[in-house]
Amino acid sequence: MAHNVCDFCLSEGTGIFSRPQKLPDGHYICKNCKAVIQKYGLPVKYDLFQTLVTSQANMTDMMMDAWLEHNAPDDAIAKYYPLPKILLHEGEHCLNAVKAAYTVKKENVPQAFAVKNISEVRKGTINNIPDAGERSGSEKIEGILYETEAALYFLSEKIVNVHRLGYVKRNTRDKEHVTVQTPSKKFTYQVKNADLFFLRERFYQKVMAAKNNKRQHLIYISDDNQLTITPGVYDIPRSLRPGIYKVKAINDAGLHMKDPLGHVTDYYESEESISLTEGGVLECTGEYKLEFIRDPEEDDDT
Question: Are 169 and 182 in contact (CB under 8 A)?
Fold first, then answer.
C-alpha cells in the first residue's frame, strides 16, 4: 500500500506525482519539505532541525521540548553543537558558525591582519566597526559569524567584531540578516537562513536548562519587590506573581516568557522590562535581577 503522508509536515499527497518520497532512514518526505530542507543546507533526513524548519513557527518550542524529554542534554550538545574548525576560549561552545558579510567605510578598514581564532580575541584585537550602509566609499567585508554562549563574534581578514548577546535583535521576520543594536552603534550582518541561526540558539538554551536541572531552580528574594532568579522554569503565579518587572541581567544567557497559548517572548538587554502573564511560564537560562513594577491590570486601565 502506498504511503501518502509526509512525516515532516504531515500533509497527505494525492496522485502519483505528489506521493511522498521514501528516505533511506524509512521516513517519507514530500517535495515541498525536501526543497525547504535543501534550502537550509541541511541533510535530507528525518532529524530535529529538519522537522523544525518544515514545521509551523508556533510548534517549534513544543518540538524542542519533546526532543529533550526523550534525549539527554549531553547527547544534544555532541550531536548538534560539535567543535568548530577554530579554537575557542576555554569552556565555550559554538552554537552557530555561518558565512556573513557587512558594509563599512573603506577608511575604517584596518591595514593589519586580524586574529584567526576566537581564543586569540582580546580587548586590543577587537575593532567593532559599525555599519556604513550602501553609501559611496564603503566596502563589503566577508567573514564568519560565530555565536557561543558568551558572545557573538564576526571574524574576517582584517576586522574582528565582538558583541554581547543581549544586543542581538531576535524575533524578526528578516531571514537574511543578523542585526546587533548597541546604544551607540548598529551592525547588520547578511547571512543565509537567519531563522535557523536563532532556532539553533533557542535549542541550545533549552539544552542547557535541561542540563542544569531546570526544575531545581532557586529564587533569591531581596525584599517584597526585588528578587534574583537562576536557571530554571518558573510557573506563573505559583513561583512568581504576575506583573511587569524591571530586569537587570547578571548573566544574560536567556530569558523567555511563554504565555498560556504557547507564544514565546524573548527578553533583550536593550529592553527595560518583561511582562509575566498568569498561567504562563518563565524560562531562565541565565541569571537576572527582577524588580516588580506594577500589576498587568494597570496597563489595561490606561
Answer: no
